[in-house]
Amino acid sequence: MRIKAMVLRILNQLRNDKRTLALILCAPLLLLTLIYFILDSSTTDLNVGVINAPQQYVENLYENNIIPIRCSESEAMQMLKDQQIIAAVKMISGKVYIDLDGGNSTKATAALSSMEAAKKAMSSSMERADLKTEINYVYGASDLEMFDNFGSLLIGFLVFFFTFLISGISFLQERTTGTLEKLLSTPIKRWEIVVGYVLGFGIVTVIQSSIIAFFVVYVLDIMMIGSLWLVLLITLLSAMTALTLGMLLSTLAASEFQMIQFIPIVVVPQVFFTGLFDLSPEWAAVGKVMPLYYVADALDKVMIRGSRFSDIVFDVALLLGLTTLFMILNTILLKRYRRI
Fold first, then answer.
1. Collapsing DSSP states into helix, strand and coil, what is residue 53?
2. Rounded to 10 degrees, what is the CA torsion of 181, 186, 188, 194?
3. For a disulfide at 137, which of 29, 45, 99, 102, Cβ 3.0-4.6 Å?
4. Domain 46-140: assigned CATH number
């Protein structure tokens, strides 16, 4: 009987907590649906810039899941930089020259395999078995490991995830324990409370970002082509964005458990839009409204491609803009607790 009473109490508690019940029943379905559409829309075709090559070779590329794009050498280098193509190929004096973006080893290996198959098919039909291939890695390296591919994404995600969770729960506790209401009864302004929390947690996030960046680069020995200081800047901005977003969403939660419920809805879906999958243009556009997309993009540019600050200024500006927006919304939402 005591067990039965306990079971009934839990069921009644869940019945009264509509948000938790909805999350248990609907969140897995929403995530599975999202994954289904993303994987179903992902493409396996790779773009390759063709600077100079026979038409038969170009046709062979089509047959090997490669989309050839005719371009000049300067255009090919720019498209490689903008990640519009995975490689650029040209044939001169019986030799195949390939400039390769090895930042993603999976794509690079697939592209090389397809281009090799296209070359062999052409060599066979032309009775030319002497075509040699020379590969130049513009980004990445031939021995790039899987962790090097996704390490930048993991850095951004881990910083974002833990900062979002801890800041949201901490700000929620300030409200549920009455500390926030006491603060609002003093002459302190709402914006001063928000800025104070952001700066207070910001000091901790600086330490957190520094430890993670140094550990990944110097202990785990992840590929680092660009500036470590830029990596620190990006991880700090990731933490600040997650911090202000966590504070914002904590105003919608009544308990720590409800705060955790936002993770599969707000944080987890962002991972699928950070370059982990090749998305269709429609789904790629959805990813551009998510903070983690710009964090992963900036880290990839710096760590794998050696980009400078001028190359990531848009990502930095957008993360700063989102942080500012979330701070403003936090200030506005504090009115619901006490008008001062």
1. coil
2. -10
3. 102
4. 3.40.1710.10
Q: State yes or no: pLDDT of 54 exceeds 50.
A: yes
The 10 Å Cβ neighbour count of residue 88 is: 25
Q: Helices 228-250 and 190-214 meet at what angle, rounded to 10?
A: 140
Give the pLDDT confidence of 233-248 residue by residue, as tens digits: 999 999 999 999 988 8
In sequence order, what are the residues at sequence separation of 6 or more whose Cβ sits closer than 8 angstroms to the Cβ of residue 311? 301, 305
Beta bridge partners of 97: 90, 134
Q: Please state, in angstroms and as integers, the Cα–Cα distance from residue 295 to each residue in 34, 158, 209, 237, 320, following that order.
A: 21, 11, 13, 8, 11
Tokens at 2, concatenated: 């005591």
Give the whole-angstrom CA distance, residue 140 versus residue 250. Answer: 40
Mean pLDDT: which of 138-142, 206-210, 304-308, 321-325 is highest?
321-325
C-alpha distance from residue 27 to each of 161, 174, 263 (Å): 18, 28, 10
- Of 166, 202, 157, nearest to 292 by C-alpha is 157
Q: What is the mean pLDDT of the chain?
A: 82
In whole angstroms, how large is the CA radius of gyration of the chain? 25
Q: Which residues contact 247 (CB under 8 A, 6 or more apart)?
A: 167, 168, 171, 194, 197, 198, 326, 330
Helix (H, G, I), strand (E, B) or coil at 209: helix
Please check the confidence at residue 151 and state whether its pLDDT lies above 60. Answer: yes
Q: Is the pLDDT confidence value at 211 over 80? A: yes
Q: How many CB atoms lie within 10 A of CB 28?
A: 11
Domain segments of the chain as ranges = 46-140, 146-336
> What pTM was computed for the model?
0.81
